[in-house]
Target: Cupin domain-containing protein
Amino acid sequence: MKGRGKLYKNIPKQEKILLKNLVEYRDGQVVSKTLVQNDFVSVTIFSFDKGEEISTHASGGDAMVTVLDGKGRFTVGGEVFTLTEGESLIMPKDVPHAVFGEEKFKMELVVSF
Model:
């Protein structure tokens, strides 16, 4: 299939896992691990140290975040959302957004193109 690209990588297959364990916390850093990247979808796991951020940007697709651990602050189109473990948020395509570590936190990001 044209444009299909790679499927899952950097993740065990046919094995029970905790997504939050796929990426470690590092002092003063945002750490990411890409699990899928193709023309249709991107799946990435992130960890944020307290006070670390990804500055305002926009995405070429709808982005759904799910917090896996801790607490993060998401600013989407000027509106602020604080999410904790198990909570999700959709950040619409082309709407500026930013992410900030209120405390150490981990999240899964799924972008659909």
User: Anything to note?
Assistant: The two ends are 16 Å apart (CA to CA).
